[in-house]
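Recall that a protein's primary structure is simply its ordered list of amino acids. Everything else, from secondary elements to tertiary packing, is in principle encoded there. The following example makes that idea concrete.
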Amino acid sequence: QVQLVESGGGLVQAGGSLRLSCAASGRTFSTYAMGWFRQAPGKEREFVAAISWSSGSNTYYADSVKGRFTISRDNAKNTVFLQMNSLKPDDTAVYYCAASYGGSGNRLQRGYEYDYWGQGTQVTVSS
């Protein structure tokens, strides 16, 4: 069982930055690929970014955030991060982190590849 707790959300002006964190319980964090998803009001959940298990040498991004967002992980701290720069009002959503045991590659863009989900953190970008 893995428990995920997101933090770092808030209100920011367009063009600003936020850094989301997701702390995981358990001693097997490094064996999970990790992902970030978001869901805006009235819209379906969408993939944002993912990072491979272990060293996190592979990262994946949605086209809408490529070049602005960076995903990283610190296995010693059981934490995955999402650095968000140049934020836009369209980035407003609840952001969820998720853990996937066995997922890899482009499959990490699919929500059903993930075994555990956090409760989400709200990000609001004002224009």
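The chain has a mean pLDDT of 96. Residues 31 and 53 are 5 Å apart (CA to CA).
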